[in-house]
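Example with several molecule types.
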Amino acid sequence: MPSPLLLDGKQIAAQIRKELKAANALRISIGQRPPLLAAVLVGNDGGSESYVAHKIKACADVGFESRLLRCSSAISQSELLSVVHGLNQDEQVDGFIVQLPLPEHIDEQVINLAIDPSKDVDGFHPVNIGRMALGLPSYLPATPAGICELLRRNGITTSGMHAVILGRSHIVGSPLAQLLARPGEPGNCTVTLCHSKTVGLRDHCLRADLLVAALGKPGFVKADMVKPGAIVVDVGTTRVADPSRPSGFVLRGDVAFDEVAPLCKAITPVPGGVGPMTIASLLTNTCQAFLHR
Amino acid sequence: MPSPLLLDGKQIAAQIRKELKAANALRISIGQRPPLLAAVLVGNDGGSESYVAHKIKACADVGFESRLLRCSSAISQSELLSVVHGLNQDEQVDGFIVQLPLPEHIDEQVINLAIDPSKDVDGFHPVNIGRMALGLPSYLPATPAGICELLRRNGITTSGMHAVILGRSHIVGSPLAQLLARPGEPGNCTVTLCHSKTVGLRDHCLRADLLVAALGKPGFVKADMVKPGAIVVDVGTTRVADPSRPSGFVLRGDVAFDEVAPLCKAITPVPGGVGPMTIASLLTNTCQAFLHR
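Resulting structure tokens for the full complex:
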């Protein structure tokens, strides 16, 4: 078995940023303003802080403006709704995100539904999800779109593949199932969506030409669950305690990389696989939001 | 093998109509008006004429008002949009449908997007599709919802089943995949969505605990594609020429019933299976639309 192709999200995201930066510089050279992404961060969750910081930094890298709105974890739902309404109405803001998860006393769907779909660069609003399902232009959810772009830019054609997706979340598994099943490329996969109620999970995994793990269970996918020659995409990024690191933790994917990689035709690393692609998709959506105003 | 349970949509739809009728009579007895469904029929396609006639008759059966708007097949897109806008604004109309297919010179999605989501009792508008995907209250597309109701009222629990769906249409296969995969009952299935680009279709079918055929290919599913003990749902209703009938045609499902039925734990007939359930779902959605105004 030859060594697997590493699906290097870090490198491809850098390429996408380079393209966005060049187009942005061109627009600025003819007197246009840059796109502006706003991010709402509620509380001080370590993961959320880190994700938002990466998004803000990515904006700076490509010359987009950004704005970070910090809210106390004690903010009420109606106060957070006011923040969202303010961003909806702010002419300077092209798109914005409300970083998840939110504190338990806030209903995430109430906040999600309040976001103007034309500024919903996370692609989580029902209007964008419904438009995606119908194949109409929309903001695609960032992680599924990033996975598709990662496959596309690695020259992987998915038509006719059997894709098996582990995890049915609203932000990864379920929308990715739709994107991979629909006509087009990437797409045209036979898609099997597995989840916590799946019976015989290992057998499903073993039939996958393209296996996507989006469970948030570190090291869950073992070598005996992967068909030789499969393409494996690991969406998991769980913080696992590691006292030997300055941060005190290490990011672990859902795939036991060391034992699975030798079997694969191609595989994403964690970190440096899907994560950077998610941020690249967010920038792409922000650019779209700017262009459509 | 004992003889299969016949999933009798005609009988269950009659039961649903009986329930809707009783609730409606009660509302009328306290002075409320009945729900009103409007249907827009463009042209004179035989199938469409028949479907709309069934829907109008079903309204009468349960005591709902209905209104049929006939348009020439030469109607322009903008004229049809005016009809839709009129229905959106008509206070007397609780819900309405635009019977598909439309003539080729009209973009179905343009019409679909013009329908007020709160009156979209077909459940085809992106807002309703997106809300369904997120598990929010919405009008469910009539055929997938009817299939779920048919399973529920036959006491079939689907949790943990492997459901294999043939056909990825926006109105049946794709939304049904979402309904069967999501948490709840019916639901919690591992779902495989197959379509024209699927490789090894027979093998996929043979693994199904619940096999749903929504291809529009008469007699496509043969006995050698069905696992013994499977539940088979046939969505196909293709008109096949039959000179021996007064109508000149016979309705044929996607399943070769005579050879498949003996293998099954349960199976829907065609006609009298999914078709009546679709109309029952439309009535249920119309009642919801009335109650939510």
